[in-house]
């Protein structure tokens, strides 16, 4: 480089490096946008009533399916296309690769239907007839009947069954109460599609999982996450604030306090899995085991509190997020000018009164920020939960009508873990991926919304505090 | 003007309340602090029984895990450090301040994306895609920096009007479409290159020529995914350090005729060096302990291999997988807790170091800022 | 004259004594240091009851430090050490039997920079009252109105008592904190440059207030404004480098100072 003329060297040196640095920012933003776009399109697209195609192959086979993606054929110039065909009970697979060259004929008939059934997943094909209460309906009557009945919940439907035909002409009897959702995507207008799309998003948010977690909704997981996070903040906020007040307002500001402060700050950087190990060893095996041997000894060896559960998960996450709350609160306390404290003290306030009437109200935005950051961190944290009490599929919700209503010892479902489990331990991961995208999108939205709230609070509440009362 | 008289009153209760509350806060505060610090004590306590296993104790089961942990962290750091530091330098010193006030929180928000989401995308989408398009991936990694330099070169050649429309201070934004186009170009070119120079299939070539196996979920994937996750924390801390370099210093250097980049290189970086270093350390701490991404993107095969195309298994992933099944008190249980202790000590030491360095730096800035 | 000019030690400072029933605050051999750095040195003086005593002196000479010591505000700062005695009505304020909060209710303090709480104007003034006792709202409102009126603020804020105190101007804030202190009706009022941010009209009002209050309480005033000290105070003390240089009736200190140092300071000549 030195050989080059100094001017060129300088130009290269000072001229190009900044561009590389700028590209780093651009690249980070690009990756972030790509990730979010991917999540949003795939996550929301999952609920869109996709067009179904009917393809006739050269071999004479007929395939009904939803085209998913195309890939180049190995060792050839042409492409092949992946169809989601459903009908796992009949054909044994949900997917079919079709070489584009083999397609002789491709149509989008309006009478194709897509059923979601509670065993076996989706059915794609045609509706031939309906048999209900001894009657057999065909044609328009059948459609009218199906549209009417399937709008009702399964328990209120009359007994009966649908007569269905698959692409290759096989017939299938499907009882009415096993159908959870019914649509004819090709016949829908754009408006109808939007409505269906909204309905299915709502179902996703409000229903429980089906088909070994590969379908259905995530309501128990949302509920479990929220409940755990609430319990956690109930534990972490008072203790975190207490510790911060002690450190900042009461403790002598000496070397030891300084060291403790650095220690607390560093604990925020300790990997979450380590907290999980602590939770398992101390809360579950230590405290939980002791509680079991004292109070639930008649149920041993099956553990009550001696296994992962809601309480231990909340406690572990509370410990994990304590540094966040302490640091945020301490920052808020340190920002309050001493003149405020002196003003209160000079009017004859005791330390407690100064604290509760002047200092804490002023530190509230900081405390709230800390709490929200803690919640955001806890909502996305999965690793420690795998050790202390999250369940793949919890048979019982942790809150129900049975005394004592809130069952702290129960296992619970968690969005993040649900995502991990669906994506990695399902039977048909391919079929679950769209759902996983929806879960991931939901999780990211929750966490980002929480973080944005914290940022908003930090920036605006502090400024506006002077104006409101 | 006489005041309305106040009835005299004394309230011994208030004093008592104050005493009790102070006592409670002190007790509670110390209790909470002890509880957090108890983590270290617990981990050490639970690894002590390992000594009683005597001959049965072999740490050899842990060594591939230690290797995997380091390999994953190293891969992530290789990916993240240049990008994060480059971004920090750019946004601290070249970016327009208005843009900076938007971009910085956005990039910091990246940190909030849960590891499980990144792991899922890496393990289930990125990994199969990279497996199918290995050439494209490697080409992208080489091509993108070049294309950035190309953008810089073109900019210097461009007419003045265009240069004013697309200034360097906004390059962080308008380079995005450029990079996207360049990436698309690379993706389009990759199959051709693979056909002509790499014998049609890079993976087979690697296998035959160099004996490199290719696992779908491998260190490369972990590096990219975890790198993505730790970019924001390195960026944010390094940016703070660089942006806090007293202005007078930079201006002094530029007044002597140094270009902005030279001022950055000769003045800002040496001054902020410790801060940048501590940012990298904290990033390393995160990379070592991250669990879900490694768990989902690495294949979890405990191997001793330096190849970036083979799987690995880290401490954190092993703990997450094996600890729930391990019987308390057994050898595996204690070994896994030893692994957790190693993670704890490593991150704690790294963070303490970083914190001490940062405080030194803050004092240095105060001195410099005051002196000049 | 020449002898006292050359020596700057405390021994040459005149010790003005008041009889026990005249004396409100009595400070004796008071030392105070911030983290070992002396800020007040061997201070001995009596402050008479129901009079205005002014402290003057160059910036950093320890005037605020002394006022804060009388209020025991240094208790909050661990690095402060002190020795000597301060007696309020014959009782040592550092005595174990002394109740600090009660002391601070008896000794009101107005700080150099106004520090209203982030609450409404009303709540600011009611703050000290609420600490002490539950008053019926009527009575409390009366006291608050009286305090605000005394501090020459009532007319400006009577329509917006429930707005934030932080919206007031600097001078208004200063009068608000005076009102806040008056509301708890202390026996001694320590004013640390109460007129530093005020316009001439408000300053006159405050001075008027000080003269009025004299009949009920003992006032200690720190000011950098010589005319003000001369106008309102009965006695003046001149501090320098944490030491009491001269203390006497205001007329005497201003017209016929005993020490050259004092005269230089008052007339604005550099020594
Ligand atoms: N909190 C503190 N810590 C350490 N030193 C202090 C502190 N407060 C004041 N000092 C020092 O004590 C000395 C006296 O300060 P003080 O505030 O009493 O001065 P002052 O006479 O009120 O000055 P001014 O007229 O400017 O208000 C000064 O040298 C100051 O630096
Ligand atoms: Mg002062």
UniProtKB/TrEMBL annotation, chain A:
Membrane topology: Multi-pass membrane protein
Record's protein name: Phosphate transport system permease protein PstA
Family: Belongs to the binding-protein-dependent transport system permease family. CysTW subfamily.
Bilayer-crossing regions: 16-40, 218-247, 267-288, 308-328, 358-379, 431-457
NCBIfam families reported in the protein's UniProt record: 3a0107s02c
Subcellular location: Cell inner membrane; Cell membrane
Residue ranges constituting the ABC transmembrane type-1 domain according to the UniProt record: 222-454
Keyword field: Cell membrane, Membrane, Transmembrane, Transmembrane helix, Transport
PANTHER family reported for this sequence: PHOSPHATE TRANSPORT SYSTEM PERMEASE PROTEIN PSTA (PTHR43470:SF6), PHOSPHATE TRANSPORT SYSTEM PERMEASE PROTEIN PSTA-RELATED (PTHR43470)
Highest rank taxon of the organism: Bacteria
Alphabetical list of Gene3D superfamilies matching this protein: MetI-like (1.10.3720.10)
UniProtKB/TrEMBL annotation, chain B:
InterPro entries referenced in this protein's UniProt entry, alphabetically: MetI-like, MetI-like_sf
Entry keyword Transport: yes
Taxonomic superkingdom: Bacteria
Main location group: membrane
Membrane topology summary: Multi-pass membrane protein
Annotated localization: Cell membrane
Pfam family of the protein (one): BPD_transp_1
Keyword Zinc-finger tagged: no
Domain ABC transmembrane type-1: 66-354
Transmembrane feature ranges: 20-45, 65-88, 109-130, 136-158, 170-193, 219-238, 267-288, 333-357
Alphabetical keyword list: Membrane, Transmembrane, Transmembrane helix, Transport
UniProt record similarity statement: Belongs to the binding-protein-dependent transport system permease family.
This protein's name: ABC transporter permease subunit
Organism: Vreelandella zhaodongensis
Automatic annotation (TrEMBL), chain C:
GO terms for MF: ATP binding; ATP hydrolysis activity; phosphate transmembrane transporter activity
Gene3D superfamilies xrefs: P-loop containing nucleotide triphosphate hydrolases (3.40.50.300)
GO cellular component: membrane
Extent of the signal sequence: none
Keywords from the named record: ATP-binding, Cell inner membrane, Cell membrane, Membrane, Nucleotide-binding, Phosphate transport, Translocase, Transport
Residues annotated as transmembrane: none
Record's keyword annotation contains Cell inner membrane: yes
Any single GO BP term: phosphate ion transmembrane transport
SMART domains on file: AAA
Residues in ABC transporter domain copies: 25-266
InterPro entries reported in the protein's UniProt record: AAA+_ATPase, ABC_transporter-like_ATP-bd, ABC_transporter-like_CS, P-loop_NTPase, PstB-like
Classification via NCBIfam families: 3a0107s01c2 (TIGR00972)
Annotated protein name in UniProt: Phosphate ABC transporter ATP-binding protein
Source species of the chain: Vreelandella alkaliphila
Phylogenetic classification of the source organism: Bacteria, Pseudomonadati, Pseudomonadota, Gammaproteobacteria, Oceanospirillales
């Amino acid at each position: 480089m030195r050989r080059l003329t100094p001017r060129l060297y300088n130009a290269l040196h000072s001229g190009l490096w900044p561009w590389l640095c700028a590209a780093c920012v651009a690249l980070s933003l690009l990756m972030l946008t790509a990730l979010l776009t991917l999540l949003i399109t795939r996550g929301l697209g999952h609920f869109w009533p996709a067009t179904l195609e009917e393809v006739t192959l050269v071999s004479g086979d007929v395939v009904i399916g939803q085209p998913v993606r195309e890939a180049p054929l190995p060792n050839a110039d042409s492409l092949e296309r992946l169809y989601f065909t459903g009908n796992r009970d009949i054909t044994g697979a949900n997917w079919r690769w079709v070489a584009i060259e083999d397609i002789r004929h491709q149509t989008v008939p309006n009478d194709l239907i897509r059923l979601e059934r509670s065993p076996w997943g989706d059915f794609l094909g045609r509706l031939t007839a309906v048999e209900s209460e001894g009657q057999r309906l065909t044609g328009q009557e059948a459609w009218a009947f199906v549209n009417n009945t399937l709008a009702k919940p399964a328990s209120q439907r009359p007994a009966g069954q649908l007569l269905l035909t698959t692409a290759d002409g096989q017939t299938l009897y499907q009882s009415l109460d096993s159908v959870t959702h019914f649509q004819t995507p090709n016949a829908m207008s754009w408006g109808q599609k939007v409505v269906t799309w909204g309905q299915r998003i709502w179902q996703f948010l409000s229903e429980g999982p089906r088909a070994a977690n590969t379908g259905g909704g995530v309501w128990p997981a949302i509920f479990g996450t929220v409940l755990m996070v609430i319990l956690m903040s109930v534990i972490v906020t008072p203790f975190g604030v207490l510790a911060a007040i002690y450190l900042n307002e009461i403790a002598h500001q000496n070397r030891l306090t300084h060291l403790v402060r650095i220690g607390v700050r560093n604990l925020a950087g300790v990997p979450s899995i380590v907290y999980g190990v602590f939770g398992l060893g101390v809360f579950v095996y230590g405290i939980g085991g002791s509680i079991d041997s004292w109070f639930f000894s008649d149920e041993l060896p099956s553990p009550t509190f001696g296994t992962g559960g809601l309480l231990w998960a909340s406690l572990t996450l509370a410990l994990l997020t304590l540094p966040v709350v302490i640091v945020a609160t301490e920052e808020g306390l340190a920002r309050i000018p001493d003149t405020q404290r002196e003003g209160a003290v000079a009017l004859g306030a005791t330390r407690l009164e100064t604290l509760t009437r002047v200092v804490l109200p002023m530190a509230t935005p900081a405390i709230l920020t800390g709490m929200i950051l803690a919640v955001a961190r806890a909502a996305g944290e999965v690793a420690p939960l795998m050790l202390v009490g999250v369940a793949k599929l919890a048979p019982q919700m942790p809150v129900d009508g049975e005394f004592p209503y809130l069952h702290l010892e129960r296992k619970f479902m968690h969005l993040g873990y649900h995502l991990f489990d669906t994506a990695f331990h399902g039977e048909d991961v391919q079929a679950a991926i769209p759902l996983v995208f929806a879960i991931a999108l939901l999780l990211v939205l929750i966490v980002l919304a929480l973080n944005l709230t914290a940022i908003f609070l930090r920036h605006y509440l502090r400024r506006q505090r002077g104006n409101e009362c | 003007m006489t005041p309305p008289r106040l009835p005299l009153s004394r309230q011994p209760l208030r004093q008592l309340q104050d005493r009790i509350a102070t006592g409670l806060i002190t007790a509670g505060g110390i209790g909470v602090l002890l509880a957090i610090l108890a983590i270290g004590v617990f981990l050490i306590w639970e690894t002590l029984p390992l000594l009683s296993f005597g001959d049965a104790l072999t740490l050899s089961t842990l060594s591939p895990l230690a290797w995997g942990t380091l390999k994953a962290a190293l891969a992530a750091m290789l990916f993240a450090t240049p990008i994060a530091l480059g971004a920090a330098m750019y946004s601290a010193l070249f970016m327009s301040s208005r843009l900076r006030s938007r971009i910085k929180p956005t990039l910091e928000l990246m940190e909030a994306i849960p590891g499980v989401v990144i792991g899922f995308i890496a393990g289930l989408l990125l990994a199969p895609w990279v497996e199918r398009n290995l050439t494209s991936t490697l080409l992208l990694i080489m091509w993108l920096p070049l294309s950035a330099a190309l953008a810089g070169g073109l900019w210097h050649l461009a007419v003045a009007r265009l240069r004013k429309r697309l200034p360097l201070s906004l390059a962080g934004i308008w380079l995005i479409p450029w990079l996207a186009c360049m990436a698309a170009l690379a993706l389009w070119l990759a199959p051709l290159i693979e056909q002509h120079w790499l014998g049609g299939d890079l993976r087979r070539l690697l296998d035959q020529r160099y004996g490199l196996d290719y696992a779908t979920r491998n260190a490369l994937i972990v590096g990219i995914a975890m790198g993505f996750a730790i970019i924001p924390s390195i960026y944010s801390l390094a940016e703070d350090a660089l942006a806090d370099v007293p202005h007078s210093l930079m201006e002094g250097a530029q007044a002597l005729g140094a270009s902005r980049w030279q001022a950055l290189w000769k003045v800002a970086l040496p001054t902020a060096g410790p801060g940048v270093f501590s940012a990298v350390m904290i990033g390393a701490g995160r990379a070592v302990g991250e669990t879900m991404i490694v768990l989902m993107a690495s294949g979890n095969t405990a191997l001793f291999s330096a190849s970036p195309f083979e799987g690995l298994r880290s401490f954190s992933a092993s703990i997450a997988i094996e600890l729930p099944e391990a019987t308390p008190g057994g050898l595996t249980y204690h070994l896994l807790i030893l692994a957790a202790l190693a993670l704890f000590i490593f991150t704690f030491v790294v963070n303490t170091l970083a914190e001490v360095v940062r405080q030194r730096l803050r004092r240095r800035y105060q001195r410099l800022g005051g002196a000049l | 004259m020449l002898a006292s000019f050359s020596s700057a030690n405390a021994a040459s400072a005149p010790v003005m004594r008041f009889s026990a029933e005249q004396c409100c605050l009595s400070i004796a051999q008071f030392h105070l240091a911030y983290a070992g750095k002396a800020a007040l040195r061997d201070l001995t003086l009596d402050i008479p009851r129901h009079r205005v005593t002014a402290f003057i002196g160059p910036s950093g000479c320890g005037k605020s430090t002394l006022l804060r010591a009388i209020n025991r505000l240094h208790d909050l700062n661990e690095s402060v050490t002190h020795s000597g005695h301060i007696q309020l009505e014959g009782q040592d304020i550092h005595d174990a039997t002394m109740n600090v909060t009660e002391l601070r209710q008896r000794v009101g303090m107005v700080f150099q920079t106004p520090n209203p709480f982030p609450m409404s104007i009303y709540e600011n003034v009611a703050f000290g009252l609420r600490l002490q006792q539950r008053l019926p709202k009527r009575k409390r409102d009366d006291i608050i109105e009286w305090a605000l009126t005394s501090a020459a603020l009532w007319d400006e804020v009577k329509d917006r008592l429930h707005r934030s105190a932080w919206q007031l101007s600097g001078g208004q804030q200063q009068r608000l904190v005076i009102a806040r202190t008056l509301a708890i009706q202390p026996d001694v009022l320590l004013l640390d440059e109460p007129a530093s941010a005020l316009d001439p009209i408000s300053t006159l009002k405050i001075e008027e207030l000080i003269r009025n209050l004299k009949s009920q309480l003992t006032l200690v005033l720190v000011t950098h404004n010589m005319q003000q000290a001369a106008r309102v105070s009965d006695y003046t003390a001149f501090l320098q480098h944490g030491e009491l240089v001269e203390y006497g009736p205001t007329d005497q200190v201003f017209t016929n100072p005993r020490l050259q140092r004092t005269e230089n300071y008052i007339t604005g000549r550099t020594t």
